[in-house]
Design a protein that fits this description.
The chain is α/β, with parallel strands linked by helices. The chain has a single domain, classed as NAD(P)-binding Rossmann-like Domain (Rossmann fold), CATH 3.40.50. The chain contains three helices and four strands. The strands form two sheets. Strands 1-4 form a two-stranded parallel ribbon. The longest helix has 21 residues, at 9-29. The two termini are 15 Å apart. The mean pLDDT is 89.
Amino acid sequence: MNARATGNITGSVRNIAVVALTKNLADELGPAGIAVSCVHPGLTVTERTEGDAEYAAVAARNALGRPVTAAEVADVITFLVSPRGRATNGAVVTADGGRPGGLWA
């Protein structure tokens, strides 16, 4: 989610570059039937962070009030790569449980 936040120049620039790449590829490849989308996960509980209470507490600072799991992020990606997800071509999808703060259109 650093593409949508300040405070970490390297993270912001790296992630916004992924957004630009996604949109450019979507525009270029869409006519050939290839859909390209980007998923921005927030703090996600993975095998590496499972059981880390401090990490889980920080990851739970979202609208859901609980951490998002790697399986939930995988579910979003599974939808996007399915035939039903083609309409999202060029989209940047957040999978962060509803990060509080600014509005994003």
